[in-house]
Amino acid sequence: MTDQKKAYLYALLAVLAWSTVATAFKISLRYLTFLELLLYSSLFSALVMAAVLIGLGRLRDLRRCTRRDYLSSAGLGFLNPFAYYLVLLKAYSLVPAQIAQPLNYTWAVVIVVFSIIFLRQKITLGRVAAILVSYLGVIVIATRGRFWNFGTVNPGGVVLALGSALIWATYWLVNLRDRRDAAVKLFLNFVFGFLYALAASAAFALPRRPDLRGLFGAAYIGTFEMGVTFILWLKALKLSRTTAQVSNLIFLAPFLSLVLINFVLREKVVLPTIFGLVLIVAGIFMQQLKKPDRAALMKQ
Predict the structure, then answer these.
(1) How does pLDDT run across 241-291, given as a tens digit for each residue?
(2) What's the DSSP call for residue 114?
(3) Which of 1, 108, 172, 200 is 20 to 30 A distant from 193 in Cα terms?
(4) How far apart are CA 101 and CA 107, in angstroms?
(5) Contact between 98 and 270 (Cβ < 8 Å)
(6) Is the pTM of this model over 0.85?
């Protein structure tokens, strides 16, 4: 098998895994609170990344980390997984998956806005149009196509889903400046994220015996949303001749996710959700046509 075929295989495996996560969130939240789900999934993600480091023979690299590296991971771990998934999982507990998932996907649009503001990238009419197209999709989803009525869904859930996109974009911007090895960095981020979740659970939640079905969901999320899937995606980008050849596959994830939401969760996907998601992805795709390498930074 050629490197390019391997790149497509790794990318498709990552996309398929990410497309199942919205469904996994909603099922797991039937048995765990959003804070419990964050706690256990971040624990499993740290364990998975530890196993990855051991498998790669990279565990010894942790000894080379400086105090500054650990402080950096403490900050990054607060943003992701702690704050990002805390907000996102709470959003999923308040609104249907078909609303939370596409609204969270606007992180790709927020990254463009942040790049213009903080990285001084050039503002063009094409970029402005792309951003407006995507956020028109947000309005369609948030109002269920009834533009005069923003009360058709839980407004708190909508705000939180959009807020998770802001947190992810902030994480991306900070992470961009951190040149450490991705596997080592992710492991330390998840360790700190777990510690934050543990502290929050001790402070705000009464300890209870977790439901085994919820633990299974947390293990799945920790492995395929937070953990090893990132490594698969980075491997795909590394093997591909160009990032554009695999990066656009990520646009399949939200649509595959809606299929699972409809058939597994039995949550009837309404037309405004599909139309709004098409607008969001269209706006993101317009950006990729201008900057094809930007998608290499997605989900890093």
Answers:
(1) 877 778 778 888 999 999 999 999 999 999 999 999 999 999 888 876 655
(2) H
(3) 108
(4) 11
(5) yes
(6) yes
Going 271 to 274 to 278 to 284, the CA torsion angle's sign is: positive
> What does R_g of the chain's alpha carbons equal in angstroms?
19
Burial tier of 202 (Cβ tally within 10 Å: 0-12, 13-18, 19+): exposed
Q: Which residues of 14-49 are buried (b: 16+ CB within 10 A; e: fewer)?
A: bbbbbbbbbbbbbbbbebbbbbbbbbbbbbbbbbbb
By C-alpha distance, which of 277, 16, 12 is closest to 144? 277
> Are 47 and 134 contacting, i.e. CB atoms less than 8 angstroms apart?
no
Q: Which residue's structure tokens are 């075929």? A: 5
169 burial via Cβ count (<10 Å: 0-12, 13-18, 19+)? buried
- In one-letter notation, the amino acid at residue 170 is T
Q: What is the spatial distance between Cα 24 and Cα 225, in angstroms, rounded to a whole number?
A: 10
